[in-house]
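Handout, section B. The chain below has 92 residues.
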Amino acid sequence: MTGGLYLIVWFILIFLDIVSLAMLGRAILSWFPTDGPTRLGSFLYVITEPFIIPVRALCNRFGWFQGLPLDMPFLLTMVTLSMVSFILQSSL
């Protein structure tokens, strides 16, 4: 792998790690009741929601996971990000 391609993959991996940590933080914050939106919660929502929206739209379009108490699009997004990260790490 050339130096430039290695650097691009490295930056993508760092970006995926940051998004995964933001999603983990969002999940943990959802366990605690609040009176309204917090600054941290709003920030994590803005960071993570662009990754969740396509998966949520796909699940809603086909009617998958209707009526489940878990946010399955969120979990599917986490798994997908982890798989992409794993594949990119194995390519290094």
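Note. The first helix runs from residue 3 to 29. Compare this with the example in section A.
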